[in-house]
Design the sequence.
């Protein structure tokens, strides 16, 4: 099995006590590649401590919208310098989040556009967080799209119309635990989306899939999401693993022969 978790926060304190066991369970579940989006400037230092035989880790840099409380324009040079490093494969996570607060909507939009500029200049994909902000998020990405912007709508939970709009403006869709939730409706939408634009993720330690819902999420649990996607697409699990891994490597500009 060759599964790729394109969005995991293994560097957070939630994994401090049993990280080696988490690694081993991931390896046993067939997870071979784990992508690590940042949430703030400390994230990169925390990521540097992650390693395990048989699992490859890939770092990203960005400032999560929930960390935005003021103008970020003075940080654009710093973000560019960090993301320009050859060991940084993507820009993010960034995006919009109106769920917790709408006090900094303009600042979040400003930060998102800054991340887009860096991503386009460096030709690296952007990783987008979205909560209760879909139309504004897609409007900004559409406005920033000049033909060079690529990226992923992480933790996709949109309607079919929103999903197709995201595809039309150059995004991939990150399929995570929510796609396994009964009555969420995401599974029906994902079923209609082209498999060549889907990648798998956990968002660990958040949003564990059925039958682990409510538990701390971890990369090993992504196998449940992969099985569900295979069922939705009427494909074998091995094929889904290979297709989504190939999609991820192509999106992030990595050598697919190493996938």
Sequence:
């Amino acid at each position: 099995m060759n599964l790729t978790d394109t969005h995991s926060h293994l560097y957070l304190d939630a994994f401090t006590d049993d990280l080696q066991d988490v690694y081993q369970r991931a390896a046993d579940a067939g997870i071979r590649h784990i992508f690590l989006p940042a949430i703030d400037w400390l994230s990169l230092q925390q990521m540097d401590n992650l390693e395990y035989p048989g699992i490859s880790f890939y770092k990203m840099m960005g400032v999560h919208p929930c960390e935005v409380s003021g103008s970020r324009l003075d940080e654009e040079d710093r973000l560019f310098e960090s993301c320009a490093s050859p060991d940084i494969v993507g820009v993010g996570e960034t995006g919009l989040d109106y769920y917790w607060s709408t006090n900094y909507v303009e600042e979040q939009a400003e930060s998102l556009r800054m991340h887009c500029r860096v991503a386009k200049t460096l030709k690296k994909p952007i990783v987008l967080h979205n909560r209760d902000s879909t139309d504004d998020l897609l409007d900004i990405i559409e406005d920033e799209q000049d033909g060079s912007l690529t990226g992923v709508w992480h933790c996709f939970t949109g309607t079919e119309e929103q999903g197709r709009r995201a595809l039309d403006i150059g995004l991939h869709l990150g399929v995570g635990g929510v796609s396994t939730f009964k009555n969420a409706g995401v599974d029906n939408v994902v079923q209609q989306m082209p498999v060549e634009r889907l990648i798998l993720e956990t968002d660990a330690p958040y949003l564990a899939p059925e039958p682990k819902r409510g538990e701390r999420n971890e990369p090993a649990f992504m196998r449940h999401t992969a099985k569900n996607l295979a069922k939705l697409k009427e494909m074998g699990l091995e094929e889904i693993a290979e297709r989504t891994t190939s999609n991820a490597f192509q999106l992030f500009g990595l050598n697919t022969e190493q996938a």
